[in-house]
Amino acid sequence: MNRIPTPSLIAYLIGVAILSCLGTPAAFAATVTATITDDAGRPLADAVVMLAPEPGTPMPAPERSRIATATIDQTDEVFVPPVVVIRSGGTVVFRNSDGIRHHVYSFAPVRRFEMVQAPGETSEPVRFDKPGAVAIGCNIHDHMIAHVFVTDAPWAIVTDAQGRAILPELPAGQFVATVWHARLRPRSEPVTRQIALTAANASLAVSLSVLPPRRPRGHDY
Amino acid sequence: MRRIFILLAVLCAAVRPVAAQDITINGLADFRLIAPPSDTSHLEGGYGKFRWGDGRGSPVIPDLAALALRVAATVTPDLRIVAQFRYDPKQKTALDMLEAYVRYRPVSTSNWRWSVRGGAFFPPVSLENSGVGWTPEWTLTPSAINSWVGEELRVIGAEGTLEWRGEVDRFEFVAAAFGVNDGAGESIDDYGWTLNDRAIGLFDHIRTPNPGGPPTYNYQFRQLDHAVGWYAGVNWERPDLGRISFLRYDNGADPSAHDDYEFGWRTSFWSLGWSTEIGPVTILAQGLTGTTSIAPSPSFVSRTDFWSYFVLAGIERGTWRFAVRFDQFATSETSPSPPPRSDEHGIAGTAAATWSPLKWLSLTGEVAAIDSARSQRALIGKAPHTTAVQAQLALRLRF
Predict the structure, then answer these.
(1) Does the predicted interface ipTM exceed a cut of 0.90?
(2) Are residues B117 and B82 in contact, defined by beta-carbon separation less than 8 angstroms?
(3) How far apart are alpha carbons B337 and B163 in whole angstroms?
(4) DSSP, res A172
(5) Would you tell me which residues 12-71 of chain A have a C-beta closer than 8 angstroms to some C-beta of chain B?
(6) How close B28 comes to chain A (CA, Å)?
(7) CATH, range A63-153
(8) How many Å lie between the alpha carbon of A43 and the closest alpha carbon of chain B?
(9) Which of B388, B311, B325, B1 is nearest to B139 (CA)?
(10) Interchain CB distance below 8 Å, B74 and A219
């Protein structure tokens, strides 16, 4: 025997139907595929792509940021990955997978710190409160360089070897995209673009004027 | 030389506590096939300007160009000991030391950082020689400037560096005091500029041109007076300009001092270098001008002025690396000695291609040519002007 719906259940179903018709920001999930190249059109790895709502645009921030924490390993006297991006207030864990000590440090005004890491050691999370680029070095091995980019933008990601970055689960609206790279010319500002998300998929192509890769000069004496 | 032994003893004492600490060892084995020029090399007592050349016109010869080790021990995170050794049967001692020093550099999280190092090390002149065994990075054979630095100069003393690291610009101020290098300058007077990748070891000596006679030698690492040598310089680096290095060097030797082996060669020079990247091309450029003199008696003062510059362009493409370099050089002697004097001028061109299919393996082909004129070639019955070519194929193994 079929049950007759109660009045309260009917009201609930009608409410769901109305909300579905109106469409809420949470229901819209767009994906932005960013492609970052240099002046010559070559893919630019390790660029930081950030998306923030245009000023004055109300928009829910992601409930749980994907960029609250990051890990930088040290292997074969190289920081891996060379660039990470985290939210302001986020943390970075440093791990030493080498068989020798490293002395991780930063003298960047945004975040100054130093720590000696024994072989195999993993650090306590290092907190970065202020936005900006933080160059990380090793005081023992000068050729080791990494960057932690700290941002207030709700969405951010680092490009892969093909210069590509995919930002999923974005709400609809007007955004400002900002792109930073460690080899931007001195005192040049990160490049910004406006982007409107109205469809499920959007693309962002940005060409950056960057300096040539820096070759290490001399050996660590 | 006794001071060098004392220095080594101090270093060995310092090394002892590091047994359980970090030690990194890098090695280089460099096997060559060489098509040498016909002139006898300056390393064999002739006036030839390349490393190889036996005067007999050998077509192609095999040789072990380098068997070198670089040992770096991190005693504490702030204290590091570095030593470089090379095995070469042609040295005075088959196993010799190129440099050995202790560096103390405490970490700094401010814009300023300082460091000191003491021991025996190369002065910070070369833009090219960053490899194990003080080998050049782009070519097999370094420029005339850095061939000379490798042959005659070594700092046996202490150096201090103060760095200022800004958001964009970076400055390094460096100064040093040293001794035991009073023989530096004699070789550039004796046979002038060369292209030679065998830096002298700390216990070695260098042949002097003595055609037809018994081997005679220069002794670079001697202390003949109580004077202290010094150098001071500044490096400026910014990402869009590269690195500019400026240095003034004076070995402080008393030109009237001498012993049974060596005169005090008072040698001083200015050096200006620039390294940068323009697109995919790395540019190295350096100029050096200086003078060396001896005055064994008030009536005999000999002075040799010398200068040289080079420009190198290098590019990497996958597993390949290509480099070309142009050198120009000259010396001019003022002396009461009868002619021919140590006057010379010349140019050199070098081209090198390196294939590195594996991280530990590379194959390099290099051709270098020198067109020069030196008056003293008359002493061996040859015209001052000569053109010499040296071709090499190197198989290099690294670990």
Answers:
(1) no
(2) no
(3) 47
(4) S
(5) none
(6) 15
(7) 2.60.40.420
(8) 15
(9) B325
(10) no
CATH 2.60.40.1120 intervals, chain A: 28-62+156-212
The segment(s) of chain A belonging to CATH 2.60.40.420 are 63-153
Question: Which pLDDT tens digit goes with each residue over B141-199?
Answer: 999 999 999 999 999 999 999 999 998 999 999 999 999 999 999 999 999 999 999 99
* Torsion, Cα of B66, B95, B144, B382 (10° steps): -100
Tokens in use for B23? 């030690």
What topology does CATH give the domain A28-62+156-212?
Answer: Immunoglobulin-like (2.60.40)
For residue B111, which residues of chain A lie inside 8 Å, CB to CB?
Answer: 107
For A105-135, the pLDDT digits (tens) are 999 999 999 999 999 999 999 999 999 999 9
Domains of chain B with bracketed CATH:
2-398 (2.40.160.10)
